[in-house]
Amino acid sequence: MILRSKVSFALALALSFLLITWCWHSSPSASSKPPYRLFESSSPLPSTQYAIATFLTGQATNDDSYFVATRVLTHQLLHAPATRCNSSSTSFLVLCSQDVSTEQKEILRKDGATVVEVQDVPLNWWIYSGVQRWKEQFTKLRVFEMTEYKRILFIDADTLITGHLGDIFDEPEVNTLAPTLSSRKEQMRKDESPFPTQWLFAARSDNQFTGEREHSTPPLQTPSFSAGFFLVAPDKEMYQHLLAVMSHFHRFDPFTMEQSLLNYVFRREGAMPWRELHWKWSATWPNEKDLDMGVASLHEKLWNTGPQRLQNIWKNRKDEMIRFQEERRVNAVT
Ligand SMILES: *[C@@H]1O[C@H](CO)[C@@H](O)[C@H](O)[C@H]1NC(C)=O
């Protein structure tokens, strides 16, 4: 029995090795400069130093909640006087995967968003998760390739904005790069090369590990971060590094997808330990105290969960967005 499982394990190992080598060599990303954008015909990106980006995938026909959330986020960052960003310094991009419908992209454009159609990131066979549309969750990694921008803040669409997020680009954790720690040589596996010499990846501790909704504010720090809010200096070498890590069987837990990939690459004990952004920028599992203490963005599906007071604010934002866009379209016609 034991012998048999050993033999099948060895077989599986040999097979995976073959497959991995094959996938790696046939991966289009290994060739020179693949365009991350889906259509060459897309209009050029607005040229600003900074960008805030979110990500939309196609959805089941009976569920447009993320599409609506993306519209609400667009409204908060582009139009709402209390939370909009300075458009001369910061662009707002909606990265859309291949499956987003033409109608939805058109509505987002009319709302004022810059729609960027991006190709899915090529995945190795072992990267699998039961979650719906898991494959596309890796597509958000394209932000690492968007070197048109000096810095990109990535935000999940299910986020309530309550402050001036554009100011995050002035933070010392954000406006300088970090060196890769060559003193941690044992953490730099050869098969994951290249390692950039300088890089930036900053994120927030995840309240999921410190009491969820009961967490204190200011919150405690946690070993891993939430991948719903992170800030990067785009860098093609870093993107290649991510692909190199993804080519190795079970180097990270595929079930928690890009969150565990990023938490592996930027692990605290690694050669590129993630930088912690100040707690005032974002909270997962937000509660009323986060709101009262001025946390600038609250990550929650507030259309059906979370504290009632927060849900009410989100619903008001949504109504405001619909009124605003209706008026805009009427004015555009007359
Ligand atoms: C907006 O950004 C531009 C370019 O960085 C800057 O010159 C301008 O002062 C900013 N405006 C405000 C209101 O901060």
From TrEMBL:
It comes from the Eukaryota. It holds the Pfam family Glyco_transf_8. One of its GO terms (molecular function) is glycosyltransferase activity. The keyword Ubl conjugation does not apply. Residues 1-25 form the signal peptide. Keywords: Signal, Transferase. The keyword Transferase applies. InterPro entries: Glyco_trans_8, GNT1/Glycosyltrans_8, Nucleotide-diphossugar_trans. This is Glycosyltransferase family 8 protein. It comes from Lophiostoma macrostomum CBS 122681.
